[in-house]
Amino acid sequence: MKIKAQKRKKALVIRLFTKKIPKKIRILTHTSGSDDKIAIFFQILAIFFQILCLYLLHCLLLPLSVNYHFLRTCNYSCGFCFHTAKTSFVLPLDKAKYGLQLLVDNGMEKINFSGGEPFLYQGGRFLGELIRYCKDELKIKSVSVVTNGSKVTEQWMIKYGCYLDIMAVSCDSFNHDVNKKIGRCTKNGKNQFDILHQIRNWCREYNVMFKLNTVVNRFNFNEDMNEQVKKINPIRWKVFQCLAIEAENIGDTALRQVEPFLITDEEFNSFLARHKGIENLVPESNIAMRNSYLILDEYMRFLDNTGGSKTPSKSLLDVGVQNALNKSGFDEKMFFKRGGKYQWSKEDQILEW
Ligand code: SF4
């Protein structure tokens, strides 16, 4: 996988710099006749360009997989939430589409829409249109969404399911009281696992791959979820260690306070050990999570987590993708190490439910 991505990266740079310029230099060298000094000059120039290309190749970041948190508002109130409703801003649809086009031009192969709760805005129509645009017009290989599931409807699945590769639903417990303690529900809302089962069935019906996300925290780290998860059988079960992010869920300006939810590495590992029999479990410790995601916020700014808080770049709409990416803090090696590149398109997957 990694080799493929590097090949694509190479192709981008090579297309830009290596083929045309050195070739022209070589032609000039040969046509410079008997003048040895000119020939040597052009040969040195060719070497210089090759070194320059290698340097650019090293610097170029490929936004292979991007998480676009296009809104921050949510109808749930998870106590550890680290992408909180600091603004209610959402880009106009045409600008969001333009930004996605720029990302594709720079090598993006997977887009994940997230929030906040992405289905909350315009009753899911905005999300649906972005998903359709990405799959139908931009031909992006993998289009996915992460949702709490509470606002997903069958009508939406009928209309947009054909453009969607993966739907990930978050559920932290199969005990309603635990989800209530966490805030993973609305005040009068349904059980989160009822929502999970409903969406799982729609995914089967409308040919969308189903993924489960769980945040392991103080209230659920002792739970045994084996039976329920096996029953649901997601294509991937992402198990995150509850994470603190300055100014999001920790610190004076934060809208949430994560401290009562945090667990130790040993507690996280004990949860993983209890569920080691589940093949599709993908664990994500705090270290793996911090810098291995390309996170784009509601203004299309990359968020750099390296300092323990989210420092935004300038918007890629203003400075272009590569300039914005340079401020993203993205650790490409960690992305591949945590298995960030996987079978993420339903075209590659034989759906056997
Ligand atoms: S569902 Fe919970 S974690 Fe997700 S955005 Fe809403 S409040 Fe945050």
TrEMBL record:
Keywords, alphabetical: 4Fe-4S, Antiviral defense, Endoplasmic reticulum, Immunity, Innate immunity, Iron, Iron-sulfur, Membrane, Metal-binding, S-adenosyl-L-methionine, Transmembrane, Transmembrane helix
Cofactor(s) for this UniProt protein: [4Fe-4S] cluster
Gene3D superfamilies (UniProt xref): Aldolase class I (3.20.20.70)
Transmembrane segments: 38-57
Chief site of localization: endoplasmic reticulum
Topology term for the membrane: Peripheral membrane protein
Record's subcellular location: Endoplasmic reticulum membrane
Positions of the Radical SAM core domain: 54-279
Family the UniProt entry places it in: Belongs to the radical SAM superfamily. RSAD2 family.
Listed name of the protein: S-adenosylmethionine-dependent nucleotide dehydratase RSAD2
Lineage of the species this protein comes from: Eukaryota, Metazoa, Cnidaria, Hydrozoa, Hydroidolina
